[in-house]
Amino acid sequence: MNGECKLDYREADITHAERMKEEANVHFSAKRYADAIDYYSKAIAMCESSSTKPHNFAAYYANRSFAHSKTEAYGYALADATKAIQLDPKYLKGYYRRATAYMSLGKFKEALKDYEVVVKALPNDKDAKGKYTECNKLVKRLAFEKAISVEDTKSVSEQIDIESMNIENDYSGPCLNDGKVTLEFMKELIKTYREQGKLHKRHAYKILLDVKKYLEKQPTLVHINIKSDEKFTVCGDIHGQYYDLLNIFELNGLPSDTNPYLFNGDFVDRGSFSVECIFTLFGFKLLFPDKFFMSRGNHESVTMNRMYGFEGEVKSKYSVEMANLFTEVYNWLPLAHCINRRVLVMHGGLFSKDNVTLKDIENIYRNRQPPEEGLMCDMLWSDPQDAPGRSPSKRGVGVQFGPDVTKTFVELNNLDYIIRSHEVKANGYEEAHDSKCITVFSAPNYCDTMGNKGAFITLEGQCLKPKFTTYTAVPHPPVKPLMYANSLVNLFC
Fold first, then answer.
1. Does the pLDDT at position 9 exceed 60?
2. 106 falls in which pLDDT band (50, 70, 90)?
């Protein structure tokens, strides 16, 4: 009888787990990805604790992998998809999910191998063949571009001839004043972009070249001094959501000598108005160079721009040459800013090792594509966690760091706290690690799907106590996010 009872309990556990998986599927369909992950995890834990496993156990991990991908936790997505394949090497959806994670991390060759497995198993499947073909094209294209870049040692900025770019008589957009950005130019640019107009390429190239020239002279860690009675605003990710960027300026005022700003990376990608965002921000940088600051984010990189839309958008609105010039400009963006030597601001987070000082940050060589490890990688990719210590990153790049890591870092460097961005938060911000680690995210209803609020932080120079302003998304023209993204992104998003 005892054996029969145990068998009944096991069957009941599996039945309960299956119901939880179905509940998770409902949350996933409703785009409640965090809830979906929670239910998948409970279902998996229930099955793992039982000696009897459901016949479709691999699907539990594959489904959670896809939910992790939706929250940009690509490291977790990769681990779950790999587990699904280990449980059932013939479960093709596991290869699909792992390829999705690899693609999101820019590991295109690894993704291609997984797509190849699916195509061999399903040679007549159009979807599988389409994904394999697109990924194969991308791998070959990257190899070709790498070969060309070795031959051409001259930078893009050195090859541009602005004087040969004539402005057509019918151009009605804003014009630089003797090659310089003015406040009138910026107001006209905002009006033009709001009405879905376009900045002439001559002015666009001039702005990029001037910004590059300015950034080349800036340190990797920029020190900002705020007067005791001065207000200073810090914004997080914008991600090409131009009309939400304008809403920030309407709520908080345009940048000026008396209204300084710091935008903390990820200005572009995903949102389909990234060109408008970046030229508006770069324009203000040139107009108020000592009162308008920009940090590099993980999306100011070739791999991210190629996958998530910025490269495609620039090519569509301007040219391949301009897309390559953006890469050169992004390489010179500072990695961090320190306000009154008390608050450190960077896009991602803290480090994989102890005893990192501000001097170490100052000494980082930044004129390059982000490496996959080290201080620069951590500053662009890392995230905080509730548990003490460090853990492998949920994103598959960088590290997750606990409250003890934050406490040690701020004490070592005589800081009050750190501000970072990089993560969607329901209210647009989050205070963690005993308020020593603050996240600010400024793209509301991220990708038109997440339903989150956006936020920005205002500080006063004397106390530097953060004040949070939250807001909801505003309407934008009927252009979907990821409109210009790599076709594979639209296949798996």
1. no
2. confident
Pairing state between β 383-384 and 343-346: unpaired
Distance CA 322, CA 196 (A): 20
More reliable by pLDDT, 137 or 234: 234
The pLDDT value given to residue 491: 54
HSE, CB side, 13 Å, CA atoms: give it for residue 200.
Answer: 19
Please count the other Cβ atoms lying within 10 Å of the Cβ belonging to residue 359: 9
Query: Is 16 annotated as catalytic?
Result: no
Q: Look at residue 152 in the predicted model and tell me its pLDDT.
A: 59
Average pLDDT over residues 12-37: 91
Cα separation, 336 vs 457, in Å, equals 16
Alpha carbon distance 456, 248 (integer Å): 8
Question: How much is the pTM?
Answer: 0.92
Distances (CA, A) of 169 to 174, 180, 195, 199, 461: 13, 21, 20, 14, 48
Could you tell me the two tokens for 426?
């329901």
Looking at residue 127, its pLDDT comes to 87
From CA 5, how far away is CA 51, in angstroms rounded?
Answer: 14
pLDDT at 7 over 50: no
Write out the chain in H/E/C secondary structure. Answer: CHHHHHHHHHHHHHHHHHHHHHHHHHHHHCCCHHHHHHHHHHHHHHHHCCCCCCCCHHHHHHHHHHHHHHCCCHHHHHHHHHHHHHHCCCCHHHHHHHHHHHHHCCCHHHHHHHHHHHHHHCCCCHHHHHHHHHHHHHHHHHHHHHHHHHHCCCCHHHHCCHHHCCCCCCCCCCCCECCECCHHHHHHHHHHHHCCCCCCHHHHHHHHHHHHHHHCCCCCEEEECCCCCCEEEEECECCCCHHHHHHHHHHHCCCECCECEEECCCCCCCCCCHHHHHHHHHHHHHHCCCCEEECCCCCCCHHHHHHHCHHHHHHHHCCHHHHHHHHHHHCCCCCEEEECCCEEEECCCCCCCCCCCHHHHHCCCCCCCCCCCCHHHHHHHCEECCCCCEEECCCCCCEEECHHHHHHHHHHCCCCEEEECCCCCCCCEEEECCCCEEEEECCCCHHHCCCCCEEEEEEECCCCCCEEEEECCCCCCCCCCCCCCCHHHHHHC
pLDDT in tens, 176-222: 999 999 999 999 999 999 999 999 999 999 999 999 999 999 999 99
Give the model's pLDDT for residue 237: 98
Q: What does the pLDDT average to over 264-271?
A: 97
Please tell me which residue in 203, 299, 337, 422 is annotated as part of the active site: 299
